[in-house]
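We modelled the chain as a single entity of 275 amino acids. Its sequence is:
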Amino acid sequence: MNRKKLDPDSSPQAAFGARLRSAREERGWTQEELARRIGYSSTHLSSVETGRKLPTLRLARSSDAVFGTGDMFERLYRKVRNAGLLEGFPQLVEREAEAVEIRLYEVGVVPGLLQTEEYATVLAESVVRRGAISEEQAEERVTLVAERQAVLVRTPAPWVFAVLDESCLRRPVGPPGVMRAQLDRLLEFGELPNTTLQVAPFTMGEHRPFSLPVTILTLPDRSLLSYAESAQQGHLERDNTFVVPLLTAYHHLQADALSQAESVAMISELRKGIP
């Protein structure tokens, strides 16, 4: 039987496969036996071991449970998942979890921290239909959205400032029920004691200081970092020479945007108009 040689240094995906094969062989198990233990087909398992398929979070956690490896496979999985994200985004997620202040500006879609599972699922499935990602990768994107939202309820909770371009509210995503629930989620977010929710209306026109989504984090030591992305690349910035002007621009954005009361009124009105 031909045995594919694995190079664990070639990619996080290959490293996961090599470690899975090694753990299996250390116990003298065949692929069929391990597959039965973790609830996957041996064909699928073979594809993961040889790097032809991406591992899933469920497979990683099942492997940790079967092998008694703590969270080793889950940590390897996260490296695989992060390898497919835009540059800087994995680091943003890590620092977001400890930030004391989070400032968001989003265009076109509701930001991940405020998305419902259904809204996130529709967005992910649309990328699957375009052939850009697999169904498993789509599931993992939705899982990541849910994991990130834990920051909103941690103790102590960060202060979260969210300014949404009006297009985030008016762009329909999924069937009416999905948008109704998403607007309800925004209204709930606006009621939290540690949040500020504003809408940048279309009437702001050229006065918007940003044309792309921006995130600015304040860390416990009061240091700042920013993250901005386009469709194809992300950029994480820690140098205050560049971050402080973004923070100043964000303050101008908030000053020109609708107040929270006006923003909530707009969202409520749009919510009523959804059949």
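As a brief sanity check on the tokenised model: Residues 199 and 263 are 5 Å apart (CA to CA). The longest strand covers residues 159-165.
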